[in-house]
Amino acid sequence: MSDDLEIDIDDLSRRMDGAMGSLKHEFASLRTGRASASMVEPIMVDAYGSPTPLNQIGTVNVPEPRMVTINIWDKALVNKAEKAIRDSGLGINPQLNGTIIMLPIPELNEERRRDLTRVAAQYAEHARVAIRNVRRDGMDQIKKAKAAGMSEDDQKFWSDEVQSLTDKMIALVDKALEAKQAEIMQV
C-alpha cells in the first residue's frame, strides 16, 4: 500500500472528537436546576462597542448550589450585563447588588425539564450530523484513492475503519445524551 493511497484516520478522529467537544460544551450551557458557571459562558455583553463574553467583564462565582454571582469590574457595564442575561433565554431573573449580579436558579418544573431534554436531543442530533459529515469526507477520500489505484481489499479495510470510528463516536453521543437527559429529569 503506498502512502498517498492511505486515509488519514487520525484527522477524521480529531474532527469527530471536535464535534463531541462541541456537544459537551453545548450540554454544559443547559440549565439543570443546579448552578454552574458554564451556564453564563455563551452570554455576550455589548461592552465598549463590541460583543464581549460575560465572563470577560466580571468574575463568575457559584457560592451555593442554587446561586451564580457575577462581580462586574466596570460599574458602567452592570446594566448592560443585566440586560444581556435577561435577553439570553436562560429564564433567570438577575438581581442587582451594586456591581454584583446575583442569579438565583429556580427549581425546574416538569414542563421545563421536558423542554430542556428536547433541546439536549437537538444538540445531540447536530453532533451526529457533524460526525456523519466527517464520515462522508472519509468515504470521499476512499473513493478518490480507489480512482488513484487503491485495491478493493484496501478500500474495504479503510471503509470498515471509517465506519467503525463513526459508530463509536455516535455511540458516545448517544451515551452523553442519555446522561444529560437523566441529569435534567432528576428532581
Automatic annotation (TrEMBL):
Q: Does the keyword Cytoplasm apply?
A: yes
Q: Which residues form the Ribosome recycling factor domain?
A: 23-185
Identify the InterPro entries for this entry: Ribosome_recyc_fac, Ribosome_recyc_fac_dom, RRF_sf
On the tree of life, the source organism's domain of life is Bacteria
Q: Which Gene3D superfamilies match?
A: 3.30.1360.40, Ribosome-recycling factor
Any one Gene Ontology molecular-function term assigned to this protein's record: ribosomal large subunit binding
Localization, UniProt = Cytoplasm
According to its UniProt entry, one GO biological process term is:
cytoplasmic translational termination
Give me the Gene Ontology terms describing cellular component.
cytosol
Q: Which UniProt keywords apply?
A: Cytoplasm, Protein biosynthesis
What family does the database annotate? Belongs to the RRF family.
Function in brief: Responsible for the release of ribosomes from messenger RNA at the termination of protein biosynthesis. May increase the efficiency of translation by recycling ribosomes from one round of translation to another.
The record, for NCBIfam families, names: frr
Report what the protein is called.
Ribosome-recycling factor
Give the species this sequence originates from.
Answer: Phaeovulum veldkampii DSM 11550
The opening ranks of the lineage are: Bacteria, Pseudomonadati, Pseudomonadota, Alphaproteobacteria, Rhodobacterales
